[in-house]
Amino acid sequence: MNRIQTAVKQCFTIIGPTFVEIDESLLHETIEKIQRQGLLVIQIDTNPVKSFDDLFNAFYEKCSFPEWFGFNEAALKDMLLDLHWLPAKGYVFVFANIHTMEDLPLRMFVKHFTLAHQIKEEKSQIPLKFLLPSDLRNEKLQSIVDLTLKSYFSNKAKQLLHKPNIKILPNVQVKEEQGHPNREEDDREVIPNGKD
C-alpha cells in the first residue's frame, strides 16, 4: 500500500487517527482520491489563519456555519459535531499552512478538534479528520498534539473511574529501595463489578 492509499484509508477509519499526514507533494492527489470516495474535503486556510478571529472566520466561511455561530471555542466544537447542512460520508479538514498559526489558537484548535473527532466518530460513526502535510509537522505542533491527546485520554480514564458499574483493579509491584516503596509497574485491569 503506497502513502496515498494509506492516508485515504486512515481518513475512512472510524476511531482511527485524528491527524492524518501526507507528504506535501502528494497532498492534492490525496485530496482528489478522498473526494472521489465521498468524503467532504475543506481547506480552511486558503487565506492566512494566525489568530482566534482568523480561525473562527475561516471555519464560518469555509463550512457555511449558520448565522448564529458564536465565534468562540465552544461554538466551534458544537458546529464540528453537527455539520448536518453539509451532508457527507465524512469530513476532512486541511490546514496547508498550520505552522503560521499563533500558539494559543493552535492549542485551542487541536484540543477542540480532537474532542470533536472522538465524540463524532464514537457516537455518529462518521469520520472527522485533520489532513496535514507531514512537511509541516514541526516540533511545536507535535508537542501540542501530544499534550492534547495525553490530556484527553487522562480525562477519559477519570470518567471511567467514576462509572458505578466499573472498578479498577491495580496490579502493582512494589520494590523496597532505601526504605521507600518504588512503583515499578502500574498495570490496571478494568472489569465489571460482580465479576471478580
Beginning-to-end CA distance, first to last residue: 44 Å
Spatial ordering of strands, largest sheet: 1-4-3-2
How many distinct helices?
A: 6
Order of helices and strands: HEHEHHEHEHEE
Count of domains: 2
The CATH architecture classification of the largest domain is: 2-Layer Sandwich
The percentage of residues in β strands lies in 15-25%
Radius of gyration: 20 Å
In round numbers, the mean pLDDT is 76
Walk me through this protein's architecture:
The structure is a single chain. By secondary structure, this protein is α/β, with parallel strands linked by helices. The chain folds into 2 domains: 3-159, Barstar-like (Barnase, Chain D), CATH 3.30.370.10; 166-192, no CATH class. It is 43% helix and 22% strand. It contains 6 helices and 6 strands, in the order αβαβααβαβαββ. It has a 4-stranded parallel β-sheet with strand order 1-4-3-2. A hairpin with a 2-residue loop joins β5 (166-177) and β6 (180-192). α1 (3-12) crosses α2 (27-36).
Write the topology of this structure.
Layout: H1 3-12, E1 19-22, H2 27-36, E2 40-43, H3 52-62, H4 73-80, E3 91-94, H5 103-124, E4 128-133, H6 139-161, E5 166-177, E6 180-192
Parallel strand pairs: 1-4, 2-3, 3-4
Antiparallel strand pairs: 5-6
